[in-house]
Amino acid sequence: MRDFAIDSSGLQADPSCANQVTNIFCENALETALQLKDLHGGKITVLSLGPESVEDTLRKGLAMKADDAFMVVNNTGQLPDSAATAKVLAAAIRKMEPFDLILTGRESGDWGAGQTGGLLAEELGLPFTAFVDEISPEGDDRLILRQQTDSGWQKFSTPKPAVASITNSDHNLPRIPKTRDIILANRKEVTSWTLEDLEISPDELATDQLKARVRQLSIPESKGDCEFIDGDTTEEKIEKLAEKVAAIARSV
Question: Tell me: the pLDDT tens digits for 224-244?
Fold first, then answer.
């Protein structure tokens, strides 16, 4: 088992220290789309921004029964923030076929900002709903979105096209692809675009251009101190212990 490590920049995780996996909330989003397609038909396209290795993630989406896959290759070595990610994804979406609905994961599995969906909707000028766990059609030109809240859930009616970020629930657990579907997915074409294909300069993903920047990334050090409480009586020891606990609480 490899240990978590930080790369030489000190600003992001070293990608070689662990196997890359699909963000679980994005898999919830894909499962929600697949269930919608199973009931009402349609076509599902998966899209991702990242290094060449993101193709593996997209092929898993194809194995889960997505119809098409597109990737935007980011070979800059820079980790884009939510705003830059939304801008690139929006440019890619504009090159694709017309759509009714765009789904993103609730948040990323690394930084967990939870902003890409909303910023993507802003880039495209579309309505946005967050923390959705269930979607159903309402006539030909609207959708019913069920949104999780702190105390339960509420439903919204939104016009098509729309953007929603999907949260996890008991009924959108990602399906496990069958072996045959995995084999077929590896034979399908994944359309690949560069940033230049989308008329976006790689300089726009440079650290000094990002709206949100990581200033420092470090691995917490685990330390432990053991101190014995002395005293002539049990009551005296308890009193000293309480004073120690109170001092620690005041310092936090």
Answer: 778 888 888 898 889 989 998
